[in-house]
Amino acid sequence: MQFHADDFNALPAAPVEQMEALAPAPPLWRVLLADVRAVVALVVVVLLVFSAFAGPFLWSQDPARQWLSQVSSGPTTARTVAVVEDNPQWQGALVQAGQLMSVSATTTSVKLAWPAVAGAAGYRVYRAEAGEGAGLGVPLAQIEHPWYDDRLQLRERAYRYTVVPEGENELSRRATITLTPALTIGRFEAQLLDLPVHNGEVVLPAHPLGTDSLGRDMLSRVIHGARTSMLVGLTAPLLFITLGAFYGAAAGLIGGWVDNTLMRIADFVVALPFLLFMILFRVAMGIESGESGLFPMVLAMVLLSWPGAARLVRGQVLQLRGSAFVLSARMAGASNLYLIRRHLLPNVLPLLLVSLSFAIPQAIFTEALLSFIGMGVVPPTPSWGSLCNEGIRSMLTHPHELIVPAVAISIAVLAFNVLGDALSDAMDVQIRRGAQ
Amino acid sequence: MIAYILKRLAYGAITIWFIATATFFSMHAVPGDPFNEAKAASPQLRQNLMARYGLDKPVTEQYLIYLRNMLRGDFGISFTQENRQVNDIIREHFPVSAILGVAALLIAATGGIIGGAVAAHWHNRSPDRAMMIAVVLAISVPSFVIAALAQMAIVRANDWLSFPLLPVAGWGGISHVWVPALVLGLGTMAYLARLMRSSMLAVMQSDYVLTARAKGLSDWQIFRKHQLRNAMLPVVTELGPTIAAITTGGFVVELIFAIPGLGRYFVQAIQQLDYTVIMGTTVFYGAFLVLMVVLIDIAYGLIDPRIRLHGDGR
Amino acid sequence: MKAPESLLSVRDLNISLGGQHLVRSVDLDIEAGQCLALVGESGSGKSLTALSLMRLLPRSAKISQQYILFEGQSLAAYSEAQWRQLRARRIAMIFQNPMTAMNPTMRVGQQIAEVLCLHAGVSRREANRQAVALLERLGIVNAAQKARQYPFEMSGGMLQRAVIAMAIACKPALLIADEPTTALDATVQAEVLVLLRELCNEQNMGLLLITHDLGVVRRMAQKVAVMYAGKLVETGAISRVFNTPAHPYTQALKQAMPSLTEQRDSLMAIPGTPPDLSKPIAGCAFAARCPQAMNVCARQQPADYLTAPEQHAKCWLWDPARTKAS
Q1: Residue C104 in contact with residue B230, Cβ under 8 Å?
Q2: What would be the CATH architecture of the domain defined by A84-187?
Q3: Cβ-nearest to A280 among B23, B141, B271
Q4: What is the pTM of this model?
């Protein structure tokens, strides 16, 4: 081995390290903001709360207004459509049809004409949705003249009409036409909706999420529904966690037999079934079925859900009371108020925040469930649960009416759950750093 | 252990008494009385009806009669369907709900425990990630939406196969049970899986599992003899709230799948304001849930020696 | 280096975990019936070294060695199944905290019997009988009743005896004890140590004792190995290392130990903190804290020098070139 001349001289004094000062644990919000999913969830939560309360000003459609010409439609943009007379007399006899043809096709009426078939006793007209297999579809009419004016709940989608002349060889002589009626609006409906008519045309507003089975704008209904859901979802947990926190703090601080009794009561309240008590409150307040009852719902949640928070806070109080640093602070003459502010609150608040973020989705769920079975908010008042309740009826033909509010619930619940997870993870990080 | 069981039972009895009392007095706080003009045409008829349901006596006496009847397991006669005993309604419809609930609970507990253990075993690898995504989704979608989607899927599948693979709704054979039970148990299963995963992870880190490895036991032996029982303890404590959730969820699932269970009957009774049925089923459900919680507490005591031997070691 | 008749010989053991090179080129030799103490502060890699001798490392750990010989067999290529055959039967381990080392929901006797069932192939009833006998041998009164108890019903000292019973049930040739007395009351510590010593003598068992308590080392071990930042900085016979420590770290440790025989004004703490093992270390890991550090220490790793008969140290102070230079 080769050595340098100064190898065995003393190492310059510099590198003798001092004990590094322990870095203080980073604040909770900073740990949280470093977590991508927490940030995403937080943004979603803020957007949800914002849209629930400011949404109606941004999307000003009336959630109760019915667009009868656009019942159960998918997403649409704003469009200009013609206004047609509601009840024009139409005599197909004037039309000379060489084959089955549509004279006009709008969502107000589809006018069909076809050449008369020799020897036919009459004609049967069928209508099927073009996507729906090869069947004839709904029988519309049995008529003697070779024209037909269809006004039966026409929508803006492809239909297949079949005309079958009655008599011999019926099936071989049938004629088929596929068409998509243009969207129009009847004069009566235009007046009803109070839409300004220019040159025989009106502007129909956009429905970005489509309409429901009564032709009401889904986006506006979901936004108004969010108000109900968020109102219940935020107030009830805030109230019962606050209640529980004070209750638990009182039990832990007073101690002794008071603590014992208070916690026995908490154990007992946990055993009470929520739904039954909510129904009792409803009945006791004289709320008939079919009436909205948000108050008994929130009341039952508040009265029955606080023990969790109470136990949490009591546990923290007891732990702190027994800890050495509180003892030494006490010996140094710290007042109870100081101890609560300086030691109890900073330890308890993050824990309460975590339970809050798990209680909120629970409350949103409960509201939706109860509204769904008609014991919370009842149609026509929109809430996510009551929207699902309405949507489920037309689920097989128009699944978007169920899926839109269901997705809204899921996104809200997911966001709060993810936020809660991230929050408790961030606290773990903080505790671990703090302990090092 | 016996003292522990007695204590739990006493708590349960007090809870049931409280539920019964609260039910009675909230029913009596309702303004007016159940027989208004619409139901009882003449004052005389109304008088007769009041007498028949014992509503003409003073409240305290009614309460005592009510408690005595409860103790004898007699819940009275339905208001809307006269001549029908509430007991008969419960006897007829509860078994249906019970079958559905037990099936859901079995599916949830088995699936949750296995799923959680699998996720923990492959911690931070793809089975764990997939499981956790599934869990978050299952927790975030309301049960009635899952029920509706399941129904929709059955309809589509039946259409596509052009023969009925599964019944869409109703009650009858085993084929009617398992889709509603799965739907009912899904949220609980996800919740239990998550619980099992974290408790399993804690157990896997524990010293006694390292000891077991140092003993030369194989992974499977360690799992079976040392991990499973310890990891299941927190899951078992959560079964009480779980049964409550499944009972409540059952109301909706029974409604959607048109299953003639007590839950659907209960919801109908509320909509029709059938007071005796509401009172009877409320107290019955309350007693049932409290009893379940007590049974689970006792079961927990059997699994955890710390409680079995000392009454409470937690 | 050591003669091949050693019970266990490991050469150039390296372990890394999570990007940190935690055990660096460690050589160990343990003889039957003898006690080797592995000493070092927490985080120095002692426990990891011990776990690696039973292949109980976490899955993510990377391990390599030049060779590992146990009872004349090379264990380097052993499969997991072969390792399982070895564990508890030939090499057994005692962990630091008896309160957590036992399954809380299983009876103590059953946990001991489990080992016997697995390795001795005896019936459950016979295993239970032997478990009670073992507990009796370890000085537990009323052993039959204690065997039916759960861990939470026993005291720490009693539990540690049960853990020892579990470890020696199959009469292993090597017992690894990872801080066996740290979690115990001072009065119980002595009893457990005496017990371990007796067992070594009685069954001609090798003992690898891991501890940071030099008092325990002096009472128990014939040889000692001092570990710092994943490296063995000094090894040797107990009397040598204690009386004339060759490595500045060992000297500092000795200074930090309270003593009844010497009059000292204050205990010496070692200034500074151990190095960050996630980065490669150019020279001697202790250089930054060493009062006698030289320029070469920061640049180049020292070799293993024989400082006296039966005493080795990895320190440039012992390099012949330096002796010449000064």
Answers
A1: yes
A2: Sandwich (2.60)
A3: B23
A4: 0.79
